[in-house]
Amino acid sequence: MLASLQGKEVTIHFIDGTNACEGVLDQVDDQFVKYLTQYQTLVIPITSIRTVSIDIKERQPYRVGFTP
User: Fold this and answer.
1) In the structure, what pLDDT confidence band is assigned to residue 5 with cuts at 50, 70 and 90?
2) Alpha-carbon distance 49 to 34, whole Å?
3) Strand spans (E) along the chain
């Protein structure tokens, strides 16, 4: 499943609640994932990943205020 996301910009959510975002899934193996960001290269064990998400479109900010 992760092999189909190779080369795409994804956000990786970890088991401990942290995440790695704005990076590209470079290589996928049976045990590790290589994740490239603008500043670093992460080699992540598969067992520490909870979910992987893809941002399909940018969210629109909520409009706050009152109109007359």
Assistant:
1) confident
2) 12
3) 9-14, 19-28, 32-36, 41-45, 49-53
